[in-house]
Design brief:
This protein is of the alpha/beta class. It has four helices and seven strands, in the order βββαααβαβββ. Mean pLDDT is about 90; it is low at about 145.
């Protein structure tokens, strides 16, 4: 389990990357068009097959129609050797006290692979938060001001 000196994982959409307080930003998208200051980590993104299925068959349709199938497929992909290796790297960095942000283009984390990645890493005792509720460097939850 984590102690107070350990890091955490923050998840957020690409549009909020500039607001995150973190040590590293990992862009977990299939596209290699990386925003400045981020590291592209395609091994934590959906495969091209799954992404294309979403883009061509499901995008714009109600989430309840496609999300269960997408979630199942992505969780199966997370068992690949490459994804497990990337999860271990993430776990190691966070266990050393780093705060790592996982960002992608999805606006709603309820229907997004970044939430699924955060759930996997949380099962290992790592704290994971969707921005705007985020962990500060001293381990406290910080909510952005509304005013």
């Amino acid at each position: 389990m984590q102690d107070n000196k350990s890091g955490s994982v923050i998840t957020a959409p690409l549009s909020l990357a500039g607001k995150l307080k973190c040590d590293e930003i990992w862009q977990i998208t299939p596209s290699d068009q990386v925003i400045p200051g981020a590291r592209w980590v395609p091994n934590l993104a959906p495969s091209a097959t799954l992404f294309n299925k979403y883009s061509f068959l499901w995008k714009g349709r109600p989430e309840e129609e496609w999300w269960p199938e997408y979630e199942k497929a992505f969780k199966e992909e997370m068992t690949s050797r490459a994804k497990i290796s990337q999860l271990r790297e993430l776990w190691n960095k966070v266990s050393q006290g780093k705060v790592i942000a996982l960002i992608c283009s999805c606006p709603d984390d309820r229907y997004c692979h970044r939430r699924l990645v955060a759930e996997v890493i949380a099962k290992s005792g790592i704290k994971a938060y969707e921005y705007p509720a985020l962990l500060t460097r001293d381990g406290e939850i910080e909510q952005p001001s509304l005013f």
